[in-house]
Predict the structure.
Amino acid sequence: MNLVLLGAPGAGKGTQGALLSKARGLHRISTGDLLRNAVRNRSPLGEEARPYMEAGDLVPDEIILGLIREVLSDEAGSGDAPPGFIFDGFPRTLPQAQELDDILRELGLDLHAVVVIDVPENLLVQRISGRRSCPACGAVYNVYLDPPEREGVCDACGSPLEQRADDDAETVRRRLEVYRKDTQPLIEYYENSATPVLTVDGARSVDEVYRGVEEALGR
Ligand code: AP5
């Protein structure tokens, strides 16, 4: 099963993607996580992507598509390929969606569903401002909604938690603007394709949203 998770910044794509990946053994490919790792490691990709990410803008399509092609051909071609992929935060523009169609076709893979996590804007802002992430193991918390047991420390691995550089109020406003302009139109693109679009109410608890996603996939 190959899935795309679509939703505004803070909608819960990473949270739900991690749960789905664990439950179904799917490989979650988060372009945001891949880019943040590259920025942290100061690789050429990271140095190229950093200014766009800091401004809340999209990283150019050709950079993202090179990255996706590399990850997918490594994974899909390997002997122990996973039973499917979850694309989290990708595609984000029309050219990315069209190219994903081509890449999947070349690899003989299908896109089974696009899951849209729908959350009102006031809740998005609260979720983003409270988010804290673990740079070591990738666990994600929220100081208001899902705090770690010890303030500022990852429950899973004990590392100090960080706030993302692009989670300040001004950059979040820009990211939401970019989502509305460049990414939201993809819902219509997929509605006009053969791939089912499953819209899930994301303004509920993490467990309720997860049950909503599984229910929609099971239909
Ligand atoms: P990316 O990392 O993809 O960021 P995003 O799309 O803005 O999404 P977020 O990671 O902010 O939110 P999320 O939906 O994953 O929510 P989460 O589960 O963490 O991209 C970052 C940047 O990289 C982009 O701005 C761009 O520059 C670049 N980029 C990435 N991909 C690109 C691409 N394809 N093309 C071009 N550029 C690209 O949850 C948020 C918070 O809410 C957490 O604290 C969580 O604990 C909490 N939470 C989640 N669900 C719930 C719930 N149901 N109830 C209560 N709290 C919840």
Observations:
- The first strand starts at residue 3 and ends at 6.
- DSSP finds nine helices and seven strands in the chain.
- Residues 7, 9-15, 31-32, 35, 52-53, 56-59, 64, 89-90, 92, 96, 127-128, 130-131, 140-142, 145-146, 166, 175, 204-206, 209 surround BIS(adenosine)-5'-pentaphosphate (CB under 6 Å).
- The mean pLDDT is 94.
